[in-house]
Amino acid sequence: MAIRPIITAPDARLRQISKPVETVNDDIRALMDDMLETMYDAPGIGLAAIQIGVPLRIIVMDLAGKDEDPEPRYYINPVVLDTAEEMAVYEEGCLSVPEYFEEVERPAKCGVRYLDYDGAEQLIETEGLLATCIQHEMDHLEGTLFIDHLSRLKRDLIIRKLKKEQRLAAAE
Ligand code: NI
User: Fold this and answer.
1) Would you say residue 6 lies in a domain?
2) CATH number at residue 37
3) CB within 8 Å of 5: residues ≥ 6 apart
4) What pLDDT does residue 41 have?
5) Tens-of-pLDDT digits for all 172 residues of the chain?
6) Where are the alpha helices (DSSP H) in the chain?
7) How far is the CA of 67 from the centre of ligand 1 (A)?
8) Cα of 168 to ligand 1 centre, how many Å?
Protein backbone atom coordinates (compact mmCIF):
# COMPACT_ATOMS: atom_id res chain seq x y z
CA MET A 1 0.00 0.00 0.00
CA ALA A 2 1.12 3.54 -0.62
CA ILE A 3 -0.01 7.04 0.18
CA ARG A 4 -0.63 8.97 -3.04
CA PRO A 5 -0.69 12.77 -3.49
CA ILE A 6 -4.20 14.26 -3.37
CA ILE A 7 -5.08 16.70 -6.15
CA THR A 8 -6.60 19.98 -4.98
CA ALA A 9 -8.95 22.45 -6.69
CA PRO A 10 -8.90 24.18 -9.11
CA ASP A 11 -6.77 21.48 -10.82
CA ALA A 12 -8.50 20.61 -14.12
CA ARG A 13 -8.05 16.87 -13.55
CA LEU A 14 -10.78 17.01 -10.91
CA ARG A 15 -13.22 18.02 -13.67
CA GLN A 16 -12.80 14.79 -15.67
CA ILE A 17 -15.64 12.32 -15.91
CA SER A 18 -14.40 9.01 -14.53
CA LYS A 19 -14.77 5.79 -16.53
CA PRO A 20 -16.40 2.57 -15.33
CA VAL A 21 -14.17 -0.20 -14.01
CA GLU A 22 -14.37 -3.13 -16.45
CA THR A 23 -13.05 -5.89 -14.20
CA VAL A 24 -12.54 -5.85 -10.44
CA ASN A 25 -9.12 -7.49 -10.28
CA ASP A 26 -6.03 -7.32 -8.06
CA ASP A 27 -4.86 -4.09 -9.73
CA ILE A 28 -8.16 -2.43 -8.84
CA ARG A 29 -7.98 -3.82 -5.28
CA ALA A 30 -4.40 -2.50 -4.94
CA LEU A 31 -5.63 0.91 -6.10
CA MET A 32 -8.45 0.81 -3.53
CA ASP A 33 -5.95 -0.14 -0.80
CA ASP A 34 -3.83 2.90 -1.74
CA MET A 35 -6.92 5.11 -1.80
CA LEU A 36 -7.93 3.96 1.68
CA GLU A 37 -4.44 4.50 3.09
CA THR A 38 -4.29 7.95 1.46
CA MET A 39 -7.72 8.82 2.92
CA TYR A 40 -6.80 7.66 6.45
CA ASP A 41 -3.53 9.57 6.28
CA ALA A 42 -5.17 12.85 5.18
CA PRO A 43 -7.37 12.23 7.29
CA GLY A 44 -10.76 12.11 5.60
CA ILE A 45 -13.95 10.02 5.50
CA GLY A 46 -14.26 9.59 1.73
CA LEU A 47 -12.10 9.64 -1.39
CA ALA A 48 -12.79 9.18 -5.09
CA ALA A 49 -10.08 7.76 -7.38
CA ILE A 50 -9.93 10.96 -9.45
CA GLN A 51 -8.71 12.78 -6.33
CA ILE A 52 -5.44 10.86 -6.71
CA GLY A 53 -5.53 11.38 -10.48
CA VAL A 54 -7.09 8.06 -11.53
CA PRO A 55 -10.24 8.64 -13.63
CA LEU A 56 -12.06 5.45 -12.63
CA ARG A 57 -15.47 5.14 -10.96
CA ILE A 58 -14.19 4.04 -7.54
CA ILE A 59 -14.93 5.45 -4.09
CA VAL A 60 -13.61 4.49 -0.67
CA MET A 61 -15.15 5.65 2.58
CA ASP A 62 -14.98 5.07 6.33
CA LEU A 63 -17.52 6.78 8.55
CA ALA A 64 -16.42 5.14 11.83
CA GLY A 65 -15.79 7.54 14.71
CA LYS A 66 -12.33 8.16 16.14
CA ASP A 67 -12.74 5.62 18.95
CA GLU A 68 -14.43 2.98 16.81
CA ASP A 69 -12.88 0.17 14.80
CA PRO A 70 -12.23 1.04 11.13
CA GLU A 71 -15.11 0.27 8.77
CA PRO A 72 -13.67 0.58 5.28
CA ARG A 73 -16.27 0.76 2.50
CA TYR A 74 -15.59 0.34 -1.21
CA TYR A 75 -17.94 1.34 -4.02
CA ILE A 76 -17.09 0.49 -7.62
CA ASN A 77 -19.23 1.81 -10.52
CA PRO A 78 -21.89 3.16 -8.10
CA VAL A 79 -25.27 4.15 -9.55
CA VAL A 80 -28.01 6.05 -7.72
CA LEU A 81 -31.29 4.16 -8.15
CA ASP A 82 -33.66 6.56 -6.43
CA THR A 83 -33.53 9.57 -4.15
CA ALA A 84 -35.93 10.77 -1.48
CA GLU A 85 -37.76 14.06 -2.00
CA GLU A 86 -36.84 14.93 1.56
CA MET A 87 -33.65 16.98 1.69
CA ALA A 88 -30.93 17.11 4.33
CA VAL A 89 -28.25 19.71 5.01
CA TYR A 90 -24.75 18.77 6.15
CA GLU A 91 -21.61 20.80 6.54
CA GLU A 92 -19.33 19.28 3.92
CA GLY A 93 -15.62 19.38 3.34
CA CYS A 94 -13.39 17.74 0.75
CA LEU A 95 -9.76 16.63 0.71
CA SER A 96 -9.49 18.38 -2.68
CA VAL A 97 -10.81 21.65 -1.19
CA PRO A 98 -8.76 21.57 2.00
CA GLU A 99 -9.76 23.61 5.04
CA TYR A 100 -13.12 24.83 3.67
CA PHE A 101 -16.44 23.65 5.06
CA GLU A 102 -19.86 24.74 3.84
CA GLU A 103 -23.44 23.56 4.22
CA VAL A 104 -24.80 21.63 1.22
CA GLU A 105 -28.36 20.41 0.70
CA ARG A 106 -28.87 16.97 -0.86
CA PRO A 107 -31.57 14.26 -0.91
CA ALA A 108 -31.78 12.77 2.60
CA LYS A 109 -31.89 9.18 1.34
CA CYS A 110 -30.82 7.34 -1.77
CA GLY A 111 -30.59 3.80 -3.06
CA VAL A 112 -27.27 2.82 -4.59
CA ARG A 113 -26.16 -0.17 -6.67
CA TYR A 114 -22.43 -0.87 -6.90
CA LEU A 115 -19.74 -3.55 -7.01
CA ASP A 116 -17.92 -4.32 -3.77
CA TYR A 117 -14.23 -5.08 -3.08
CA ASP A 118 -14.68 -8.57 -4.51
CA GLY A 119 -16.60 -7.40 -7.57
CA ALA A 120 -19.99 -8.64 -6.30
CA GLU A 121 -23.07 -6.52 -7.00
CA GLN A 122 -24.65 -4.87 -3.94
CA LEU A 123 -27.78 -2.81 -3.37
CA ILE A 124 -28.08 -0.50 -0.38
CA GLU A 125 -30.49 2.10 0.95
CA THR A 126 -28.58 5.00 2.48
CA GLU A 127 -29.56 7.82 4.79
CA GLY A 128 -27.92 10.33 7.10
CA LEU A 129 -24.18 10.90 6.78
CA LEU A 130 -23.78 7.84 4.53
CA ALA A 131 -26.30 9.24 2.01
CA THR A 132 -24.62 12.64 1.98
CA CYS A 133 -21.11 11.24 1.76
CA ILE A 134 -21.88 8.80 -1.04
CA GLN A 135 -23.57 11.57 -3.06
CA HIS A 136 -20.59 13.88 -2.47
CA GLU A 137 -18.18 11.16 -3.63
CA MET A 138 -20.34 10.23 -6.63
CA ASP A 139 -20.26 13.89 -7.67
CA HIS A 140 -16.48 13.52 -8.01
CA LEU A 141 -17.03 10.80 -10.64
CA GLU A 142 -18.84 13.43 -12.75
CA GLY A 143 -16.18 16.09 -12.19
CA THR A 144 -18.34 17.95 -9.68
CA LEU A 145 -17.10 19.37 -6.37
CA PHE A 146 -19.20 20.29 -3.32
CA ILE A 147 -18.39 23.94 -3.89
CA ASP A 148 -20.35 23.70 -7.17
CA HIS A 149 -23.47 23.43 -4.99
CA LEU A 150 -22.74 26.83 -3.39
CA SER A 151 -23.49 30.28 -4.73
CA ARG A 152 -21.13 31.48 -7.45
CA LEU A 153 -19.89 34.18 -5.07
CA LYS A 154 -18.92 31.69 -2.34
CA ARG A 155 -17.39 29.27 -4.85
CA ASP A 156 -15.28 31.95 -6.54
CA LEU A 157 -14.09 33.22 -3.17
CA ILE A 158 -12.95 29.72 -2.11
CA ILE A 159 -11.21 29.11 -5.45
CA ARG A 160 -9.43 32.48 -5.21
CA LYS A 161 -8.22 31.68 -1.70
CA LEU A 162 -7.07 28.19 -2.72
CA LYS A 163 -5.08 29.62 -5.64
CA LYS A 164 -3.46 32.17 -3.36
CA GLU A 165 -2.53 29.48 -0.81
CA GLN A 166 -1.07 27.32 -3.60
CA ARG A 167 0.99 30.26 -4.90
CA LEU A 168 2.33 30.94 -1.41
CA ALA A 169 3.13 27.25 -0.86
CA ALA A 170 4.95 27.06 -4.22
CA ALA A 171 7.02 30.14 -3.35
CA GLU A 172 8.25 28.68 -0.05
NI1 NI B 1 -14.64 15.42 -1.97
Assistant:
1) no
2) 3.90.45.10
3) 52, 53
4) 96
5) 899 999 999 999 999 999 999 999 999 999 999 999 999 999 999 999 999 999 999 999 999 988 999 999 999 999 999 999 999 999 999 999 999 999 999 999 999 999 999 999 999 999 999 999 999 999 999 999 999 999 999 999 999 999 999 999 998 8
6) 26-41, 128-141, 152-171
7) 23
8) 23
Q: Is residue 67 part of a domain?
A: yes
Domain for residue 7, yes or no? no
Expressed in angstroms and rounded, the spacing between residue 154 Cα and the centre of ligand 1 is 17
As annotated, the active-site residues are 137
CA-wise closest residue to 76 among 121, 128, 143, 124:
121
Residue at 2 is within a domain: no
Number of domains in the chain: 1
pLDDT value of residue 53: 98
| Residue 107: domain span | 12-171
Distance CA 59, CA 137 (A): 7
Our measurement of the distance from residue 23's CA atom to the centroid of its chain's CA atoms, rounded to an integer in Å, reads 21
CA of 120 to the centre of ligand 1 (A): 25
CA of 147 to the centre of ligand 1 (A): 10
